[in-house]
Amino acid sequence: MNNQSPATGTPLELRGVTKLFGDFRAVDDVSFSLTAGCIHGFLGPNGAGKTTTIRMILEIIKPTNGSITVLGESSALKVRQRIGYLPEEKGLYKKMKCWAVIAYFATLKGLGRGAAKRCAFELLERYGLKDFATKPTDALSKGMGQKVQMLASIAHDPEFVILDEPFSGLDPVNQQVMEDIIRDMAKRGRTVLFSTHIMQHAERLCDRILLLAKGRKIFDGPVAEAKRIIPRRVRIQTGDDITPLRELAEVVSLRPLPRATDELGSGAAANWELELRESGDPQAILQACFARGIRLLSFNQSDPTLHEVFVRLVGPDAKEASFR
Amino acid sequence: MRFAFLVAWREYEENARTKGFWLGILLVPVIIFFSVQVPIWLETKGTPTRQYVLVDQSGTLATVVESRLEMSHQRQVLSALNEYARRQADGHGAAPPLLEEFINQGGQSNFLAQLQPHLKPGAPPFKSPRRAFQRAPEPSDLSKLSDLAALAQGLKPYLRGEKQIEVDGQSVSLAAAILIPRDIEQQVVRPKGKSPGGTGIEYWSGNLADTKLRDEVEQTVNTEIRRREYLLRGMDAAAIREVEQTYAPFASLNPKKQPGQEAVNTTDIIKQWAPSAFVYLLWVAVFAIVQMLLNNIIEEKSNRIIEVLLSSVTPGELMTGKLFGIAAVGLTMVGSWILALVGILFWKASGVAGTSAVTGQMLTVLYSSSLIPMFVVYFLLGYVMYAACILALGSVCNTLKEAQSYMGVITMVMMVPLMTMTFIPKDPNGVLARVLSWIPLYTPFIMMNRAMADPPLIDLVGTLVLLVVSAVGALWMAGKVFRIGILRTGQPPKLLEMLRWLKR
After folding, report:
1. How many pairs of residues across A and B have Cβ atoms under 8 Å apart?
2. A61 touches chain B (CB under 8 A)
3. Which residues of B268-297 are buried (b: 16+ CB within 10 A; e: fewer)?
4. Does residue A18 share a domain with residue A55?
5. Is A177 exposed, middle or buried (0-12, 13-18, 19+ CB in 10 A)?
6. Does A242 fall in a domain?
7. ipTM of this complex > 0.95?
8. Are residues A202 and A242 in the same domain?
9. What are phi and psi of B235, to 5 degrees?
10. Which runs of E-coded beta strand occur in B199-245?
11. Which of A120, A186, A198, B266 gets the highest tally of CB atoms within 10 A of its CB?
């Protein structure tokens, strides 16, 4: 792969994009833009409109309303050679050899036949599939096939890569390989937009996330900002009365937590969760405990996870997704 | 266009790697070769001389039958000698002798002696054709039987292959037995006469399909019986024979041919029927290739490859690429079939007994007529018409099973030209042919079938224009359906829904 200069400017911008299928509003007035060289997570429960949005970005289908600008052009087809795409539904030509599939898709993205072939072999070697290069794709396991398809979508070293559910169906080892590929691209200044249901991946990989539910955008920003939507929490374990803590300005609410099985023998000690204001400092809670003579058996402060943010923002729709 | 070419190239390359492609290419020439060669092999090598037993209790017919069968054999020998002379002798310009002349002058040995000075150096010796039938003596255990029914009973195990007869010290199978009763003269059936009864001559054979010997014997016996009847009634048999050989000359003439050359010959008959062969070839080619196209689209759709493709190429480019790629596959196959056919005709024209004249005329028809260019034009346009339907169909179906039910309808529509294939040449400019020619789905097949019958210019040009317009229209509609259908999953859409897509 060549090391072309990283993308500059805005790789993608959607303005008031809506897509109707009959009366059904699959995507509803969505606007957002991506930052060049960043990894963007595209999150949302099933049926949120992620795949439809991706298909519109790639001009596979046309939006009912609104406009989309990809790499400075009003049509993705004009810049298709600079875009890479891994669809949600994965599939390969069964009888074609692995290298030939990668090379074919690379030629469709503008690479010469010779360069595409070289690139295919290079990628297969780099990602541990050298031995399968000349095997037909139906000889591959599902995970390996998915890797080959991923390589096919990035063989032409695109500036902007869209990955629809790249981790689905992969075992933990291959998930790690996929994460490495994505990080590798970002390191070289490529912009990545990937949709996923698995929040841990988004949390580990993303600089920014974009959250869609019922076709509408409900969050767009850095991961840290997303986490700030949920108040910070402090968990304490004590056998003393904690009523005085309710009066603290930092505390929004205080609720008892059920005891864990291994704590059942620890006398009268109880677990509590304190939800803090946005600016609330957990250290102030600790100081207040000392000042009011509350003896602590344990004290934990934790940031909310992206999973919690997802559940909070998406609401009941998140249930299905969170169990995945 | 570059991307459409890349798609087309992949289609071609991948298909060219399949066993089916090579089988398709090789199978047709092999079938043509064997269908031409096997009957010749069977005639010359495969079919052994068939032994028959002839018991003539009347004592008056056996010689006639034997001499007639000998005459048939001499006819074969003469034909083989003529072909041998044509291929192996230089400057042997003498006209081939008539059969009787040939036999009277000493047959094969005399012919070869005369040919000897003209033979090319190194010419192989002449191989006389195998005798088709040979009379075998009655099995020794049955020779004393005088009752025909008992004899027939005794011959049954031989005719069933359970026993073998001895001929020249070798055991061979008995193919047939001809039993002529003593009173055969009394059993002759005459018009207005009373039926004398009796079974007449009995022809026993386990092989019901090969009636050559039976026909020869029956014909010979009846000719002899009639000859005797003439004598019985005091008629001059020789005069009657002469009368029987009189005839009025009759010539088929074609008003469309040049003055002086209007006589209809074999070439004209080949010209009339050759288009039917091309219609069949066209039908097989179009049908096989659109089926290939359907499988291809369904594979990509069910494998979910289509979405990646559509992020790289437009639906139009994808469709064009597929159309041309698969057309190239088809043309390669059909082209190789035509080449093989021409090759086999050339080979045959260079001289194999009995086939060279006809094959030479076939080649002349192929060269001098517009059959091949017309075939290419009609193949391409016909393919585009049907491929458009298949592209639309394939794009809305998710599995091959789903598509097969719709394919049934298309197959039924496509059967019409096959069913009319034999009627059209008999009345190539008749109402049925003309009406069907103007239906674009049938135009390629019917016009191909009328190719040698000089159809009116309005039919030729008009139907071609209509076909081009329809093919383009079908492609446009297929493009609309394809664009939407190809990403669709679930149940195939209703016809009305597809019609709505056309308006988008």
Report:
1. 59
2. yes
3. bebbbebbbebbbbbbbbbbebbebbbbbb
4. yes
5. middle
6. yes
7. no
8. no
9. -95, 155
10. 202-205
11. A120
